[in-house]
Specification:
single chain, alpha/beta, Rossmann fold, 5-stranded parallel beta sheet, two-stranded antiparallel sheet, about 40% helix
Length: about 190
Amino acid sequence: MPRILRIDASARTEGSVTRGLLDEIEAHLGGETTRRDLARDPLPLIDGDWVAANFTPADARSDEQKQTLALSDALVGEVTAADTLLIGLPIYNFSVPGALKAWIDLVARAGLTFKYTDTGPVGLLSGKRAIVAVASGGTPMGSDIDFATGYLRHVLGFIGIDDVTFVAADAQAQKGEAAVAEARAEIARLAA
């Protein structure tokens, strides 16, 4: 039974296209799901105290520094435990929502999810899969104005997740309901 980590990043808790698509993908996959809803349970931004704690060697951290990193440690644990990540990616102003960026900042940690080597960084979370449900009003996925999907693919690869599939209901302002129909057809192909 697959272990799924579902990340909802849409600010819309009702009527969200990405949430609806993730519901369909999750139903097709089955398995045990851990949910992280970034709209209903927002994450803090990293700050100077977090950075100082993160760069202090683990065995030298004070109790306060350990507490500062506790949420980040828990988020890393969720990703580590998952076989498949389901990520809802609404494109806001050509990029990822701030809530998703906060999650990325708390999860991308040297020594835990990636390491530096003589030949460059190496992701430590290999063997996992990510399926990303994308929705946008006017931004076509993969276009010159799409700064979200390439960034997310890069970040996931940076931490070792290279098997990334995008299911897109993009450019809805131009395509209308056809955009969501295309995404649903892609979900059906994934399930086949």
